[in-house]
Specification:
With about 425 residues, this protein is α+β, with helices and mostly antiparallel strands. The protein folds into three domains: about 25-50 and about 210-419, no CATH class; about 55-75 and about 185-210, Molybdopterin biosynthesis moea protein, domain 2 (Alpha-Beta Complex); about 80-170, Molybdopterin biosynthesis moea protein, domain 3 (Molybdopterin biosynthesis moeA protein, domain 3), CATH 2.170.190.11. It is built from ten helices and 15 strands. Helix 5 (about 250-265) packs across helix 7 (about 300-345) and helix 8 (about 345-360) packs antiparallel against helix 10. It starts with a helix and ends with a helix.
């Protein structure tokens, strides 16, 4: 009987030990380093560049090149005339003047744009040529039609009273763009000039960066924000209020700011930072419940005190972590302002937009602002309630006045060619 009781007592002791171990939840306290946590997190991210899309030149205006382009051919691809006139040999015009004009026999050929010359320009002859026409063999200069007189008696001839220099009014092959030359670099915004250059090199299509998705929020509060774990899945949203209040120039500045958040991967950085703070909160909760239900006798009071001390330290770490995350968001906002100004190429547009939006926010009813408070971390202008009692230490955005000042300074440096 005593042996059975002894066995049951041992079983009870083992059960109690297992219950206490479960209450301490030690399996949750195996905390890895910040570097390891970040590495595990990033292993599940798809950071491969977004594939470019190919569009025709007619649809490429205002798009951004995804790759650099090297000229595959010379432009112009042949020696061409810059004026309407006559292709000839410069040596045949030496000494031509009003007193002693030179006469040259016309070849039975007229070279228009797109026509390949068939006859060689021999000594004492000239060939009629249009602007853009291919220079025939033997010719090394072109004279303007206005500088000649047509002699129609007998065999057709031209008479000129001014000597021509070799190479006059001729654009040589590759003088505009040489084969193998870098035509346009990656990231170039395509305008009419760039389309002309691409067409001159015989390109009908071009690879461009995919356009970002832009969502419109039906709200009178003027604001914008970017979200998404990576550029491939990013989304930029603007409210109807900001579209109504800003010009196209101001919207370009705001969208440049939001696209900078996407390019700088700010959402990912803040997600990692908040994840680490959340882990600290989780550890703090585990310590609290372990201290409350961990069990133990009075002679373990010292261990309980140590647990409470550790809990208090974790609370401080959590609080400091929250402040650091807020400081990080403010720092990333400054970075997005600078990068956004580079994207739009107009720091003043972003500064003006900030001035207009901050002034409009002050006139919006507080009830509307409260609706956006929960999502203000990624907003262009934080949806804080009106008033000056918000401590900047707990703000997700730096002061608007400071942002405008920095942008104006950047605008002045850009104006004078400084960085």
């Amino acid at each position: 009987m005593s042996e059975s009781s002894g066995k049951q007592s041992d079983g009870d002791s083992e059960l109690i030990a297992r219950v206490r171990a479960a209450a301490r939840q030690e399996q949750f306290l195996d905390v890895v380093s910040a570097e390891e946590a970040r590495a595990r997190f990033e292993r599940h991210l798809d950071l491969s560049p977004l594939a470019a899309e190919t569009v025709s030149l007619s649809a490429a205006l205002t798009r951004v090149l995804a790759h650099g382009i090297v000229a595959a051919v010379d432009a112009p691809p042949f020696d061409r005339s810059n004026v309407d006139g006559f292709a000839l040999r410069a040596a045949d015009t030496l000494g031509a003047n009003n007193a002693a004009p030179k006469r040259l026999r016309l070849n039975p050929e007229v070279i228009a744009c797109g026509d390949a010359p068939e006859l060689e320009v021999a000594a004492g002859t000239a060939t009629t040529i249009a602007t853009g026409g291919m220079i025939p063999r033997g010719a090394d200069a072109v004279v303007m039609v206005e500088q000649t007189d047509l002699i129609e008696t007998g065999a057709p001839k031209i008479e000129l009273r001014r000597a021509a220099a070799p190479g006059q009014f001729i654009s040589y092959a590759g003088s505009d763009i040489a084969r193998g030359e870098t035509l346009l670099r990656r990231g170039t915004r395509i305008g009419s000039r760039e389309i002309g250059m691409l067409a001159a090199c015989g390109l009908a299509n071009v690879d461009v960066v995919r356009k970002p998705k832009v969502a419109v929020i039906d709200s009178s509060v003027p604001n914008a924000f970017a979200t998404g774990r990576n550029p491939k899945n990013a989304l930029v949203a603007v409210t109807t209020g900001i579209r109504q209040r800003l010009t196209d120039r101001g919207l370009e500045g705001v969208l440049g700011h939001e696209l900078a958040h996407v390019r700088n991967k700010d959402m990912r950085v803040l997600a990692i930072a908040n994840f680490l703070v959340t882990m600290t909160s989780f550890v703090m909760s585990m310590l609290f419940w372990s201290a409350l239900f961990g069990g133990g006798k009075r002679d373990r009071q010292g261990g309980a005190n140590a647990m409470m001390l550790l809990y208090l330290i974790t609370m401080v770490v959590y609080f400091v972590g929250q402040l650091l995350v807020l400081a990080l968001t403010r720092y990333r906002e400054y970075g997005a302002d600078h990068s956004g100004a580079e994207i739009s190429g107009d720091p003043g547009a972003l500064a003006t937009a900030l001035e207009k939006i901050s002034g409009a926010m002050a006139r919006i009813p507080s009830e509307d602002l409260r609706k956006l408070q929960t999502a203000s971390a990624f907003l262009f202008i934080p949806a804080a309630l009106k008033g000056d009692n918000v401590i900047q230490l707990f703000s997700t955005h730096p002061p608007v006045e400071d942002r405008i000042r920095r942008l104006r300074e950047l605008e002045q440096r850009a104006r004078f060619g400084m960085r």
